[in-house]
Amino acid sequence: MSVRPHPSIPDSELRSRPEALGSALAKAGFDGWLAFGDDRAVAGPDHIRYLSDLEPHFEPVFIAGRAGDSDAVLLTGPETIGYAAVVTKRTAVEEIIAIEEFVHPEEEYPTILLSSGRERLQSLFHGAKRIATLGTGAVSAPVWQRLFVPLVSGGLDFEAADGIAYGLRAVKTASEQAVIDEAYRIARVGLEAAADAIRPGVTERHVAADAEAAMRRAGAEGFGIDTMVASGVDNTAPILARSTFRVIGADDLVAVTIAPRYEGYHAALARAFLFRPNSHVEKAIETARNGQRAAVEHMIVGTEGRVCAQALRDVLEGAGTGADLPYVPVHSVGLIEFEPPIFLSSSDVRIQDGMALSVDAALFHGPWGGLRLEDGFSIRPGGEVVPRFPKYEDLVPVMLG
Prior knowledge:
It is built from eleven helices and 17 strands. Helices cover 34% and strands 22% of the residues. It is of the alpha+beta class.
């Protein structure tokens, strides 16, 4: 069996990330940094994957460093240290320890050396005062009490600095763009498999299973968001869906959202399907596509990203579909499926060369149901807006036979 070439982030780029983060944080007045991640869907790995190439699995992970150093310390649970040693060889992680604070209270590890995470961080941050935190809003209360409270009592000040970290990631490198392109290739395979599987008489889960199997075979390491296959008015009208045992009917709208993860990076594609003409749904699909086009027309380097989002919203809200756009429709994509910058109405972040953006033209809560059309774009040098696929509007047909 042959394996197709697969792009990845170069070793040198991985190794440079903690130092670049430390330099940016030092400019902001921080003495050190502490990042947290776990295996939660969507954003769990986030900073940990970026800094160490480690995808947390079963146990949480901390990575820490001093603002002026290029090396990093990884603190995790006892079952992760062997896996972490293998995965982080290409990175700036120089020390991996299993810490007591991450041991499950109903488990023990007589053959694995456990250390105090509190003591190791006290040593690492000796003489420091202001420590930047990344992703620590997800730290559990017991770990917070055992780890952070004593460190704060010892004189350390912790302050969230996720915005600085995301600022470093807003513009993608050429290798990141190549990895994201591959993620979208995988997503397309999944979307095409879903379209092939959708027919009256099969369940939503059957369609999701075919799509996910195809994406795994194509190279997906997992999914940032579980594949959403929704059918009928009740299942498609809400923003979120779980694929169920509902049997798809010949008169149903079927909405599919695909979000595979590859080398830590995400892609997102979404489409709506019909078997028979439905004027309300067809109008909604046309409106969503026109809104997406309006957003892309405003993807001009130097323009505030919220202008793109507002252009899309204006089209959707002015079309009289009976549905609404309930969230921000234009955002970056990367190690999170919806990664900052997210172009809120209050955001002043501008479009830049090298950005990787997703345009999600969504219409939900309608009397006919709901749907989204979502596609990815990159802003290449010189300001060229390049869709992830040349003819992205025609990846799959709306009307299925």
